[in-house]
Amino acid sequence: MNNLIHNKITLIGMAGVGKTTLGSQIATVNSYEFIDIDSLVNNEIKCTIHEYIQANSEEKFLELEETIILNLKLPEKCIISTGGSVIYCKKAITYLKNRSTIVFLTDTLTNIKNRITNFDSRGIVSKNHTSFEDLYNSRLPLYKKYQDITINLPTPLNLESALNLIYKKLS
Q1: Which tens digit of pLDDT belongs to each residue from 82-132?
Q2: Residue 9 φ/ψ region, left for φ over 0, alpha for ψ in the -120 to 50 degree band, beta for the rest
């Protein structure tokens, strides 16, 4: 078991960076509760995020995401995996920042693009960016603005080495 000194950890970063995969693994190993915001949103909307955005709007989605986060009752020890768009929800990201350590998981654009094969149908809040590269570049400063810790994931992404990097920063 790795001894984390942070009781509440929020993972932020681009879609496809590995927040859910790494977060669930860290939570399991450390007996923390795992909270996946995208799953909570999906449970609420009863359809995919992509379908919800298409039927409503990105703004309606962000309002829903923010409401879900603001209503979270955080357990004593938890790992929170956010959607990549959480940085557009000022109240929500501030709520999380005041209650947890914000960890920005980052990887190269190429590596993330290789993991995201369904950009057009994934349900990514694009804020009118026409390419994943433009979206990535516009979000980086926002992730950096809210992060407490940045973790540059290894290339190629290997679960064990990524987890070791995270533990080193959080222990």
Answers
A1: 999 999 999 999 999 999 999 999 998 888 888 877 666 667 888 887 788
A2: beta
